[in-house]
Amino acid sequence: MAKQYVSATINGEQSEFLCETQQSMLDVLRDVIGLTGAKEGCGSGDCGACSIILDGRLVCSCLMLGVEANGTTITTIEGIAQGDKLHPIQQKFLEHAALQCGFCTPGLIVATKALLDENPNPTETEARYWLAGNLCRCTGYDKVIRAVMDAAAVMRGEAA
Amino acid sequence: MNYIDSSLKVVGTRPLRPDGVDKVTGRALYSADTRAAGMLWGKILRSPHAHARIVKIDTSKAEAMAGVYAVCSAADFPDIPSEEAFVGEGPMNFRDLAQNVMARGKVLYEGHAVAAVAASTPAVADAALAAIEVTYDVLPYVIDVEDAMAADAPVLHDDMFTAGVDPKPTKASNIAKVVKFKKGDVEAGFAAADVIIEDSYTTQPVHQAYIEPHACLATCAADGQVTIHASSQGHFMIRAYTAKLLGMDMSNIRVNPAEIGGGFGGKTLIYIEPVAVKLSQKSGRPVKIQMSREDVFRGTGPTSGASVTVKLGAKKDGTIVAAQTVLKFQAGAFAGSPINPGCMCGFALYDIENIDVLGYDVVSNRPKVAAYRAPGAPIASFAVESLIDDLASKLGMDPLTLRQKNMAKNGTKTHYGPTHQNIGFEQVLAAVQTHPHWKSALPAGQGRGLACGFWFNIGGESTATVHINEDGSVTVATGSPDIGGSRASMGMMVAEVLGVDISMVKATIADTASIGFTHLTGGSRVTFATGMAATQAAEKVVDELKKRAAMIWEIQPDAVEWRDGKAFPAGSNAGGFEPLDLAELALKAARTGGPVNAEVSVNAQGAGAGFGAHICDVSVDKETGHVKIERYTAIQDVGKAIHPSYVEGQIQGGAAQGIGWALSEEYIYSNKGQMDNPGFLDYRCPVASDLPMIEAVLVEVPNPRHPFGVRGVGEVPIVPPMAAVANAIKGATGLRMPDLPMTPPKIRAAFDAAG
Amino acid sequence: MSNLSYAAPTSVDDAVKLLAGSSGLAKVLSGGTDLLVQMRSGRLKPDLIVDTKKIPGIIGIREENGGFVIGAGTAGAVVEAHAGLNKAWPGLVEALDLIGSTQVQGRCSLAGNLCNASPAADSVPALFAAGAIAVVVGSKGKREVPVEQIPTAPGRTSLAKDEFILEFKLPVRPARSSDAYLRFIPRTEMDIAVVGCGISVTLNEAGVCTAARVSLGAVAPTVLLLADAAAILVGHTLDADTLAKLDAAAQAACKPINDKRGTIEYRTKVAGVLARRVAAIAFDRAAGKSTGKAH
Questions:
Q1: Cβ–Cβ contacts within 10 Å for residue A39, how many?
Q2: pLDDT tens digits, residue range B141-160?
Q3: Domain extent at residue C183
Q4: Which chains pack against B, by 3+ Cβ pairs within 8 A?
Q5: In-domain check, residue A119
Q6: Would you call C191 an interface residue with chain A, using a CB distance cutoff of 8 Å?
Q7: Are C206 and C162 found together in one domain?
Q8: Considering only CA atoms, which of B529, B516, B542 is closest in space to residue B599?
Q9: pLDDT tens per residue across span C138-188
């Protein structure tokens, strides 16, 4: 099969690429485009390390074909910060030590971004259920949840 | 120098980690994140059988395929003789390691590697694997540890004769060794006891389940020099093992430590690096291998499952006078379960006069076990801490009081030899007693459990260098992969010694060609041992800086004093000079003798043992058997927390893993000896909504053998949770659940059986 | 290497032609949350993927003749955000909401969940209980099929090779009607149902049940619609006797297997437990007593 031509907006920039039909969007991001921030932890949608925002919705890039990206708008972890200024979520993950190995962190930050875009004032329970698809094996989630709640407060203008 | 009683400015604070920004922006490079020009994709063919003789491997069709550049199997690797080496947290036999990396003659578990290919794309590599024809002579297999010990069990290794029994057996068996420890006279102890209690327990193998699958990129140059980019808990370990398995000199292998996406002990040995190097040698191209999650579950080491019995005898006042246990650990396909630490840890928490411990290391047709956080201890402590809870009930005593009555103290002689020194178990239990969680009333319908844990912690060989850069900023490099924030700790200890702000110090991990040997990140040793090397290197730099200042001022070095990051004349007699800071001294370094650096290697001794106690509240749905963790507190003696946030993180993460072990994680086998749940869907690690906040309470009893009082913290927290949860379930329901994981079907069945 | 083709037709006719004309295995791609997993594991090796998401009307929710029509490819997250559906069919919405993670919610669809034909699919017992009608399109035109006639065995459906589901029709809701869905899983999220139960009821002014549909998942090769259990509810309030009979009927209907997710004994008992709990929620909702989530 000839490769598929795909055009999509990725992190605010128009991006064109060729991919094999069977390549997942995760494969495309990592191996074709070179955006390796999204990680493969399972390849089956069970760990969330490959999370991206597709047309405003949080999805696992491993559960999507690269060809399906045609005409879509995608945000990856590389598109969360504004230039060299960290997003409040990134800043709070650092301040709360919400990462140890850091491998699940890109997925957690992207998922948190999608959560706070939709629900700026989540309860702890809502945050935990929203993030249930993002496995973290290091932290026990405690500091992650604290970072999420604190970032939400900052983004609402209620905390520093 | 010792800083334990000094007033500290950096140590004990919570600065941002130096590698943090890369990790929150997706820039940090983990093992699968690098590519090389002309790179091939390596893939490994794995056995579908639990136990089979390899009759023939025909790779001709795969080799003939377009896009396939190399194929290898055991025939391409040296046949390594049996050789024991003590590395990491347990013994390693290099022949076993070699045969685990690539099966030779027999496959010993489903998922055992039998051949590998390197191809232009992952899809071509998959097709090539499918084209390899392996002829198997399928053999009977055995999965369960008790079954494997049976006289008529299929034997995995016909040259395995049980070690540790006299006379030496003449018949091969699956029992690799028998371990015994005795203290006092256990029979006399039981005879003197007022109350005797006994129970049996089982645990299932659980995987470390780091989220990053194993991956590596190997490049072999025409002159035979090899570069490996991989994440692990020890890049020196990768170099040593790869060299051994390929018959190479270590100097011809350079390993670049990639960021590591979790290990928990599971990345203290190798699986794919020698294969990638071999494929690169054969193809002349860089080769990348990355495991799938399924490969990780089927092909890499979980920790042992086990069968344990414990018997305790106590006086009416609660004094435990006799303790006996038999532990049967399954090792997977090769000898080497953590049976020794298992035999030591369960009773190490208590001062008991008469102890008898018997342990078995047993092979069966499962993946070779690997270290997992405090290897062996969680299994032993699940059993012992469950039975102590039942003993407390039987005696009508509070479970904390019973533990306080019997707890190990400084001077308590253990049943395995050493005498406890500088331990903080007493302080941990005192912290339990005063903690609001322990003192709070239990909400209606809930149960509360308490359990404790112990781990030795280790020291060992480490190297650190401290460089004063040309502008006076500071770089500290070590040979210890940073698995959970240790760069921050290294930088903080160096900043403290130098008397500078943490922002001036950056910590890095140097590759195997750029720093002296450093033992792997394991045994909770890095902040202790590598921290000791970094501290000493910083002290050497301070001495040198004082000499440089003395040279500039033309006074004696001992007339120079170092404080707050500056050289001062040590009093008015030394002269009236303006202090010199790092930037000024660095600027003048060329004229005072050249760059200011120091490298220190240590073999650190005196790692302080760690003790912890966990309090867990649960509620149980009696109709479905579902357990909800309502509240969780983990209290631990951490010596001195260099960066308290990352110490708390270790405790919270360990507790969460233990809760998974307690309730939902296990290897499930089909009736064909194949793992039935090799993915995160059915291998059930706790998710965010399964857990409450986990309160980590840091008790600081400094370890006098470390300059800042550090003791290891990463392993202790996985020891108590299983019994803490089990004891809480008992409190909520009256049911003693002796078999892990305590799944809803088991709990519902226990309810039904209880009527 | 791969001979996999991909097409994203923009009309039903084009999609049907592609499916009909495929010489190998053709698969309809909706959210892809099952399909991609099966392709990656090697369980499924399609030759053609027909991505139906660009077909007009296949994504979206509309009201028609007093009932709701849900496009077959509408993502779970879209359904969950729909106020009208939450009010009329809270059980169906909560069932869809339980499929996978938030990430999966962004992609998964009712049609995919139904046509994957897993007996443990979360939305399917709720769809059965709702009495939903699948609008199926194919070479022979359009036909309307009760959802319970779609899955025939694990991984198998009654759809012809050239057919796919375009949309689902939910019946007009009489007053005092509601539904609920619960599933049991070992964790709190991310698991496949060990047992799932969906119940839809209509009550009269006295709170007596006048119509009911009861469905169980993960206790047989396909999701079950339990006529006996529904008959127990009709003509009764949810008193202790009715609940006990419902529990027994649910258990009696189970034909489960032992597998890594549950035992026969456990699944059977929990089916009874869930039936009682789901009925209680559905009755409360129908009586206007409860508006919260069931899980």
A1: 30
A2: 999 999 999 999 999 999 99
A3: 177-286
A4: A, C
A5: yes
A6: no
A7: no
A8: B516
A9: 999 999 999 999 999 999 999 999 999 999 999 999 999 999 999 999 999
